[in-house]
Amino acid sequence: MTDHSATAQRGTDRVKRGLADMLKGGVIMDVVTPEQATIAEEAGAVAVMALERVPADIRSQGGVARMSDPSMIAAITAAVSIPVMAKARIGHFVEAQVLQSLGVDYVDESEVLTPADEANHIDKHAFTVPFVCGATNLGEALRRINEGAAMIRSKGEAGTGNVVEAVRHIRAITGEIRRLASLSRDERYLAAKQLQAPFALVDEIAESGQLPVVLFTAGGIATPADAALMMQLGSDGVFVGSGIFKSGDPAKRARAIVEATTYADDADVVAKVSHDLGDAMVGINLDDLPASERLAQRGW
Amino acid sequence: MRDPTIGVLALQGDVVEHLRMLDDVGARALPVKRADQLDALDGIVLPGGESTTIGKLLALYGLMEPLRRRLADGLPAFGTCAGAILLSRATRFPDGRPSDQPLLGAMDTVTRRNAFGRQVASFEADIGVRGLDGPVHAVFIRAPWFDEVGPGVEVLAEVDTPVGARVVVARQGRLLASSFHPELASDGRLHAMFVAAVRAGKGTGKGS
Question: Is the pTM of this model over 0.90?
Fold first, then answer.
C-alpha cells in the first residue's frame, strides 16, 4: 500500500480542470429547491447550479442579486449525489470563500448576479474550489483563465430563453481560436495585445488549437435543438438556466435536453426527443432589451 | 498482428483523453455511442464522468443489455472513476446507503461514490500499482473507492485513508478498474497494461 500523503496535492490546476473534464458532454441545470435538484439528477444532469432565483426571475423582480442562502445550498447538496455549483458575484471573494467553506464543488463567478467589483475579478488561484467564469469572446476567456478559472462558459444572455447571444459568443470564441491557430509565432504578440490576454496563453492556444480548459455554453438555451446547436458549434456541454423550470413540463424537457446533448450529431434523436414537450419558456427578443438589462456586458 | 480496436463509451465524460491515451499506447481507439458499434470491439473503456448520467443513458439508448452480454462473453473493459462504478455489482453513497442507479455489474466489487469527499478534497498523488515499476501519478476527482472486492478480484493498489487502507485499483480477469484518472496525467502505463491484456486474449475466445 502506498503512503501517498507525502505527494498528495489538492486544488491544483489539474484537479480543478479535471472535474470540468468529467462534466463534458453533459447538461448543468439551474435549480432553486431540493425538489428541482432531484428532478434534474433523475433527468441525467451532470451537475446542478444551486441558486435562489433563476435568471428570468432576477430579471422580472429586479433588485440586487447575491449569493444564495447557505441553508438552501446545503439542502440542495444533501438532496443529490452529482456535483453542486453555486454563484458568487463578480469580484466578491468573500462570497466565494463562503461557498468553498460550504463544500460546493464549483463556484460560478457570475454576471447573472449583481457585480460587487467593477474593476477586479476574484483571484481564483487563491482557492481550492475550482471556478467557472463567463466570457463573450476569447480575450475575456483568457483573462479569466489567467486569474485561475478552471472552466469557461460562453455567457449568452441569461434569463431570456433566446439563444442568439449564446450563438454569437460561442462563435466568437471558437472563431478566434481558429484564427490564432493560423498565426505564425511572430504574429502572436500582436494577437495577445489585441485580445488583451497574456502572451503565454495565446501562444499555447495557437499551438494546441483549443482552450486549455473545458468550454460550456450558457444563456438562453431552452430546447433540445438549442442544446444540440451549441454542441455542434463546438461547445463541450451546456448550462440550462431558466429554460427548464420555467417551462410547462420540466422533467420531460430536462431529459430531452440531456439526450439531445449526448446525441447532438444525430438529428433523428433530436427530433424524437423534441416531440410534445409542452410550452417552452416565453422568452425575450434581444431588440426589446435595454442595454442596462443586458447581463453579458457585466465582467471585463 | 493488427492493433486492437478499443471503444471508449462516449455518452458523457472525459472521452477524448482516453482516446488520445489509447492511441499513444498503440490501440485503434474510437468513440462508441450505439449498441451496433459494440460488435467490432476487442475491448472497451468506460471513462470518467457522472456515473448516474452515463448509467441512465446506457439504459435509455439500449446499450445496457448488449454491453452486459459482451462483458459476460469476455469483452475486456477498463473503467476509470465513474467507469469503475459502472463495472461494479453494487454502489453506495458516501454515507454507506445503497444507491440503486443502473450498473453494468460485470465485476465482483462494491464501490463507494465520492468516498474521498467532495471536490475540495480531490487530489493528485503518486501511488504504487502492483505490476508497474515506479509510482503512477494518480488524479482523484470526487473519487470512489472499493468497499468490497470478491475472491476472484486482485487488488493492484490501495491508499491510506482516514478510515484505513482502501482499494483504488482492482482487476478481475481482463476487467480493470481504477478510482482515479490515469487519462488526466501523462502516464499511459495502465492503458498499456489494459491493451496488452486485450492483445493477449485476442484469438483465444473468451477471456479469463
Answer: yes
